[in-house]
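Q: I'm writing up a methods section and want to include an example of the input and output format. Could you take the sequence below and give the corresponding predicted structure tokens, formatted cleanly so I can copy it straight into the document?
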Amino acid sequence: MEQAEKTGFRKWLPLMVMALALFIVILDTTIINVSIKAIIGDLHSNLKAVQWVITGYSLMLAAFTITGGRLGDIFGRKRMFMIGAVVFALGSLSASRAHSASWLLVSVSLIEGAGAAMMLPATASLILAEYRGKDRAVAFGVYGAIAGAAATIGPIVGGYFTTNYSWRWNYLINPCVVAVLLASSFVLHETHERHPHKPDVVSILLSAFGLGGLVYGMIESSTYGWLKAEAPYEIFNRHYPLHGVSISAFSLAFGIILIALFLWRQRVLERKDKVPLVSTELLRTRQFIAGSTTVAIVAMSQFGLVFILPIFLQGMLGKDAFHAGLSLLPFSLAVLVAAPLSGILVGKKNVPPRWLIQAGLCVTLVGAFVLRSELSVTSTVWTLVPGLALFGFGFGLAFSQLANLTLSAVSVQQSGEASGVNNTFRQVGTSFGQALIGALLISALATQLHRDVSSSTILPPAVKPQVAAAVAANAESLGTATDASQTATLPKPVQAEILKIRNDAIVKGTRTGMVATIAIIGVGLAVSTALPLRSQRSEDFDAPSAG
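A: Here is the clean output for your methods example:
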């Protein structure tokens, strides 16, 4: 009864705490995207090492969020949230002190990622426990807005600190936020399962290494190709030809086999009356799987976009880290407008959530088409605004109701496990979006650069190897830099031709990335047809007994 009598600030304070926690967890998936060059210079590292720091964090969330949800069911979601917050803060502090790429990788991916994997599933579960009916729809509207906007705000925050202070401040702010979370945790109510069971370690390892194999294969495809090896596989300064087959093919096959074994083990455990990491009943729930898959696909499109545009803004338009992040602001503002509007439409106008999700995906699809058409050598920041605004508005409408509609397919007793699986799908989408769309972009960029250099009639044949070396360096830096020292002595017409080739290649690469994004959104729209019009669970209606 006490919970039902809360009004105003006291009523929404738990949501504020959970939203702030979600914000810093999602923020760190993109906060260093515009700080890569600064980190490489400071740590004397290379692009691939820093890329693994970024992807490793998302991969850690994808691999262990299910486990974090199960631990919350066993030991208490509030308790797990607070432990995760402390671990997250320790990882952030360690990252801010890193003096090597390996130190940064361990701090961000392993320590901070582990803390985030404990915090993230607890946030949605605690919201489910705190709110009912229309309040829950509004709460998840805000939750969706934070989830959508935080990743886009990350480059702005990261760019500001990197430009004005140091990239290390991107991690120093996290312990301050965690201190606020811990101080505010008294407003949360503890929830857990009555009959706890230990999570299956073998299942955890199968899912972790399976997802790792898939992500590794996608990332390495830009270097070694998808099936036929474009170069011998190199590791620890040794080369392995692998019979002409790309390491990506082996890694993807390895990942698929392990995920299949993971699913098989869940069924075996249930047949033996043991508790699996993920119940097969949950995986057989059509509404839940359709919702979680849509969540993953929408996340892929968002993080693909956040990966694509900074490359275009820095490589093509010459923006610095801060202004590249600032240029994404129309997307964030549109999400912040659309997501609460979605909650209002569901709560007050009784609009079916599935209609909003599908309408949002259609608007996002239109925004993606507009953005692709706007990416050209004559583009400015302002020409990207309409596409960004449409993409963000559609994303906000769709994503804000997905979590509520997806989790309404399960009982409150399963909410911790279901939240963990749902958040895992989202993080899988995040990792796959960065890995898959990024690999396609980089491959298209490098291919176009080499093709244009080879076919150019203006570049003298004698300088083409020299230019090709500069092109290779450009591709390695994701199209955001060129080695001017190798081309500065060439005649002006040749320099102009090189600049034209570079700009055309960046446009080609980013447009290829947008085509992949469009295809992914289309798949998401198709999958969303399996969702019900609205929640079928009594707790999501304002029945008298709900209070």
